[in-house]
C-alpha cells in the first residue's frame, strides 16, 4: 500500500503536467484561429461582411460632381457603414470608363446611356458596364465670352461654336440646338445626329470639336460654346451667363446622368449601399447649394438598367 501510494504521488505531477500541456496546445490553436478571423475582418474585398472595411472608388469628371460625391463619402462614414469611399477625378470620359472596366475604380458618375452603349460596343476588355441608377440631368447651356451676345439674335454670321468631341454628345447638342432654333435638322435625322444632318444653318455657324473640359478655356477664342453647364461653372461662370439653357422636362431618360458599374456587379450589396446613400434628400440639399441648376431625377424611380436595355433594342432595330 505504501508503495502504491508513493507511486501515485510520483505519477500525479506528471499527469497534471501533461494535462496542462494539452490544454496549452488547445489554447494556442484557438488563438491562431482568432488571429485569422481578425485578419479576415480587415480584408477589403467587395461582398465583405458587415464588420469588414470595404474600400471603394468612384470616378467623376468635374469638380462639382467631385464635391457632391465627397459629401456622400463623408455621410457613409458618419452613418457608421463599413464602406470607405474614395472620389477620383478624371480628365476625360474614356479614361474613367476604362478604369472602371479594368477594376481601378468600382463605379463612376458622368455619362448618358448612349455614351455607355457606344463605349461597350467599342471597348475590347470584355467586361461591359451598366447603369445601376440615374442621378440627375446635366443641363446643357450655350455660352459666349462676348458681352455683345446676349441672345440668339445677337449671334454673328459665321460664328465659331465649340462643342464636345464625342459622337454621343455631339448628337445630344445638335438636338438641343435644333430644339432652340439655332439650326434645323433633317426630319429623318438619326438618333445621334451629326453636322451632316443639318438642313438649315441660318447663321452659318462653324462647329469646332474638343474635349468638354477644354471648352471654357477655349471660349475667348470662340464666339460660342455649348456643353454641360457644370464645366462653365467650374471655370468661374454662372448660370445667368448662359444664353440658353436646356429644359430638363424635355430630356429623355437615356440622357439622364447615370451611376455606372461593371455588369457582373449590378447586384453587389456594397455598391447598392453607396447608391442608396447618394439617393437621399441630403445629397439634393448639398448639391443644390453648390450647383444652382442641380436637377435630380433619382426620385422618378426609373430603372436605369432597363432603360439601357430598351435603348439597345431600339437602336439595333433601326
From TrEMBL:
<dbReference type="Pfam" id="PF03180">
    <property type="entry name" value="Lipoprotein_9"/>
</dbReference>
<feature type="region of interest" description="Disordered">
    <location>
        <begin position="23"/>
        <end position="47"/>
    </location>
</feature>
<keyword id="KW-0732">Signal</keyword>
<dbReference type="InterPro" id="IPR004872">
    <property type="entry name" value="Lipoprotein_NlpA"/>
</dbReference>
<protein>
    <submittedName>
        <fullName>Uncharacterized protein</fullName>
    </submittedName>
</protein>
<comment type="similarity">
    <text>Belongs to the NlpA lipoprotein family.</text>
</comment>
<keyword id="KW-0564">Palmitate</keyword>
<keyword id="KW-0472">Membrane</keyword>
<keyword id="KW-0449">Lipoprotein</keyword>
<dbReference type="GO" id="GO:0016020">
    <property type="term" value="C:membrane"/>
</dbReference>
<feature type="signal peptide">
    <location>
        <begin position="1"/>
        <end position="22"/>
    </location>
</feature>
<feature type="compositionally biased region" description="Low complexity">
    <location>
        <begin position="28"/>
        <end position="43"/>
    </location>
</feature>
